[in-house]
Amino acid sequence: xxxxxxxxxxxxxxxxxxxxxxxxxxxxxxxxxxxxxxxxxxxxxxxxxxxxxxxxxxxxxxxxxxxxxxxxxxxxxxxxxxxxxxxxxxxxxxxxxxxxxxxxxxxxxxxxxxxxxxxxxxxxxxxxxxxxxxxxxxxxxxxxxxxxxxxxxxxxxxxxxxxxxxxxxxxxxxxxxxxxxxxxxxxxxxxxxxxxxxxxxxxxxxxxxxxxxxxxxxxxxxxxxxxxxxxxxxxxxxxxxxxxxxxxxxxxxxxxxxxxxxxxxxxxxxxxxxxxxxxxxxxxxxxxxxxxxxxxxxxxxxxxxxxxxxxxxxxxxxxxxxxxxxxxxxxxxxxxxxxxxxxxxxxxxxxxxxxxxxxxxxxxxxxxxxxxxxxxxxxxxxxxxxxxxxxxxxxxxxxxxxxxxxxxxxxxxxxxxxxxxxxxxxxxxxxxxxxxxxxxxxxxxxxxxxxx
Length: 452
Prior knowledge:
- The protein is of the alpha+beta class and 452 residues long.
- It folds into 2 domains: 2-120, no CATH class; 126-451, Jelly Rolls.
- The protein is 13% helix and 31% strand.
C-alpha cells in the first residue's frame, strides 16, 4: 500500500510539472519574444534561412531554437553588457530563454491564436526600412570560378537621381545575391564631367596560388582602392555586411545631407560560390521633410596597415594589433560603433581618454564573429568634449584553435580578402547640422578612410 501511495505522489508531481510546461504556448509566450528579438532576420527576404512569423513556420525548429538560445548563439549579440547599453540589443533575457526551452521541451504547443499579439507590419519587399527613395545600383557579374577564387574589390559609379538637396534619415543597402556578397559600401561623390557610369575599376595586386597578396602589397595601398576613384567624397556613407544592412538616424533626431546631382560609388566585394550570378544592389533612403536639428556623421579608421606593423605570426592565438587612435577636434555626441575584422578577428575594444585624463571603455566585443558583423547603437549618446581621444585595440587568433582559420601556418597581412586581415573600427557621432564634418576629428595613428 505504501509503495502504491508513493507512486501516486510521484505521478502527481510529474503531472503538475507537465501541466506547468504545457502552459507555455506559441501564441501567448513565444511569439512576443520572436517579434522583439528574432523576426528582423527571420522573415522573408532577410538573412535568416527560415521565417519565424507563424506557428506553422516555427514549430519544426523548436528543438533547434532551444539549443541556439540556451547556448546564446542566437540572437547574435557580442557587446559586453558591463560597459554600455544599446538600443538595438537583441540578446535574450534569461526568462525568455527559459520560456523557449520549456516550450520546446513540452512539445511546442500552439495554444490559442487569440492570445497572439498583433502581427508586426514589416516593410514591404524584405526591406529593413520602408524607403521613400530607391537608388538602383549597377549590374555586376560574379563568375563561378575566377582565377584563385579571387574577385578583387570593384568600384562602380552610378547617378543618384537626386535632383535637389535632400536630408535623408536612414540608409539601407540590399544586394540581390547575398549568398556571394562579402560586403557593399557606398560613397557619395560630387558629379564631374569625366565620370564613367557603370564601369568597374579595381586595383590589381600580385597574389600567390592561394589568393594571398604579397607582403609588399599589404596595407593601405593594397586595400582595393584605385587612385582617385573616391576623390571628392567624404568617405563611406554606409555598408552592407553579414548581420547589418541598414542604419537609422531617426533614433537620434539626425540626418545626412545628399546634394543634388550627386553620384554614388559602389564598393563591392564578392566571394564566388561555384555558381555564376549577377548582383543588382539597391540603396533605400528615408527622406526628411525639413532639415533636422542634428547632422549624423560617420567615420572609420584603421590601425597601421603596412607589413612591418601589421603582420600576424603563424600559430599565434592572441596577437595584439597596433591601435587605431583618433582625436576629436570639436564637441560631439557619440552614438554608434561598428568593429570590423576578418576571420581571425578575436576581440575589439573602444576606449575614450577625456581631456582630464579619465579613461572609459565604451565598447568591448570579447567574442567577435565575422559571420555576424554588428553595429552597436548607444541607448544614451556619450558626450565627447573637444580634445578627447578614441583608442581602439584588437586581438587576433591565428592558431589551429580558430575553426574559421584557413591556414594557421601563414603570416597574415592586412588585405582585402577574408583570409587576409583588417583592423577597421567605424563609429558615428551627431553634431549641430551646421557643423563642418571635416573639422570633427583628426587621426593620430592609423589612416582615416571614411568620414561623412
